[in-house]
Automatic annotation (TrEMBL):
InterPro entries: ATPase_NBD, Gcp-like_dom, KAE1/TsaD, TsaD
Catalyzed reaction equations: L-threonylcarbamoyladenylate + adenosine(37) in tRNA = N(6)-L-threonylcarbamoyladenosine(37) in tRNA + AMP + H(+)
Domain Gcp-like span(s) in chain numbering: 26-316
Keywords of this entry: Acyltransferase, Cytoplasm, Iron, Metal-binding, Transferase, tRNA processing
Cofactor(s) the record lists: Fe(2+)
HAMAP family, per the entry: TsaD
UniProt lineage: Bacteria, Pseudomonadati, Pseudomonadota, Alphaproteobacteria, Acetobacterales
The name this protein goes by in its record: tRNA N6-adenosine threonylcarbamoyltransferase
Free-text remark on how the cofactor is bound: Binds 1 Fe(2+) ion per subunit.
Transmembrane regions listed in the UniProt entry: none
Ligand binding (Fe cation): 113, 117, 309
Family as reported in the entry's similarity comment: Belongs to the KAE1 / TsaD family.
Length: 340
């Protein structure tokens, strides 16, 4: 029986479909971003997201199969993100996947989005050697900030999470305060290159404290106060650049400190995978890479298109689950909140 898997992702503002062969070869991968639909509102609007997924998904999946040169009848399983995420988008993606599973007479696999990020590192060809369990996942996205030990397929141990904002959210909110467009992370990083990271001694919540939890809201508040103290709505660019650079340096310090604590707690992990949009940040990547090298660990930073939300990771989690015989009934629910 074929083990080709179609993966569907629709948990936030990307509609994505990908087809993977049983050995993990990517036969096709498509992502449609809804950023332009949400930009006027300065953030993701759930209702708009759900409608956009519904409009795009049938044709996107058809095109992914066409590019892979397979039909529904050739599939071994259909996998879709079933949570965590926005319920409207999840219902669209899983509803589509279940319909396809019924039509093709093939199993359905409900994928945890966080698990999909966690298992991406094992995609063949991504790193010199496929990381062996256990390894660490540092998930740094707009919706999640988590430090997780990946013990095996379906076996995860959370070491820490954010106590308030996700790290990407902190980037986006700070960028907004600095007058930058949504999504603010990339714009803030670009502006930070012009600034002095030592210009402002911003707080670094939880630094040097035990554990692997994150906190960013105090940092964001400090930036808000700094910006307000300038008494003008449009900050002069050099000043905004100094704030951006100081903010980025604080976030980088926090992440490095938390990762060092994770190594102390779990010296048995040999590799770290970073995922989520913030993993695109060069200053953060470089700092975490240096820390990993100093501790004899391998940092795996997948190419950006596989770090941010995509369907290759969903299909790959499907391949791993199918191999392990882990399929789901069509009654499997969507779970907007679904901790690993
Ligand atoms: O994983 P992702 O694409 O989407 C979800 O969160 O679902 O992450 C998006 C987040 C946004 O908050 C965005 O501002 C942030 O990642 N981001 C960055 C960078 N590129 C994207 N943050 C900092 N530096 C970047 N270069
Ligand atoms: Zn994600």
């Amino acid at each position: 029986m074929s083990q080709i898997v179609l993966g569907i992702e629709s948990s936030c503002d990307e509609t994505a479909a990908a087809v993977l062969a049983a050995d993990g070869r990517i036969l096709s991968e498509l992502v449609l971003s809804q950023i332009a639909d949400h930009a006027p509102w300065g953030g993701v609007v759930p209702e708009i997201a759900a409608r956009a997924h519904l409009a795009a998904l049938p044709e996107l999946a058809r095109e992914a199969l066409r590019q892979a040169g397979v039909g529904y009848a050739n599939l071994g399983a259909i996998a879709a993100t079933a949570g965590p995420g926005l319920i409207g988008g999840l219902l669209v993606g899983t509803g589509f996947a279940k319909g396809a599973a019924i039509a093709a007479g093939r199993p359905y696999i409900a994928i945890n989005h966080l698990e999909a990020h966690a298992l991406t590192a094992r995609l063949p060809g991504l790193s010199a050697a496929q990381p062996q369990f256990p390894y660490l996942l540092l998930l740094l996205s707009g919706g999640h900030s988590q430090c997780v030990v990946v013990e095996g397929v379906g076996r995860y141990h959370k070491l820490g999470t954010t106590l308030d904002d996700a790290v990407g959210e902190a980037f986006d909110k700070t960028a907004k305060l600095l007058g930058l467009p949504y999504p603010g992370g990339p714009a803030l990083e670009a502006l930070a290159r012009e600034g002095d990271a030592h210009a402002y001694p911003l707080p670094r919540p939880l630094l040097h404290r035990p554990g692997c939890d994150f906190s960013f809201s105090g940092l964001k508040t400090a930036v808000a106060q700094l910006a307000a103290a300038q008494g003008t709505t449009a900050l002069p660019r050099p000043l905004a650049a100094n704030i951006a650079a100081s903010f980025q340096a604080a976030v980088t310090d926090i992440l490095a400190d938390r990762l060092a604590n994770a190594f102390a707690r779990r010296p048995d992990v040999s590799a770290v995978i970073i995922a989520g949009g913030v993993a695109a940040n060069t200053a953060i990547r470089t700092r975490l890479d240096t820390l990993c090298a100093a501790q004899g660990k391998t940092l795996i930073a997948p190419p950006l298109r596989l770090c941010t939300d995509n369907a290759v990771m969903v299909a790959w989690a499907g391949v791993e689950r199918l191999r392990a015989g882990l399929t789901d009934p069509l009654t499997a629910p969507c779970k907007p909140r679904w901790p690993l």
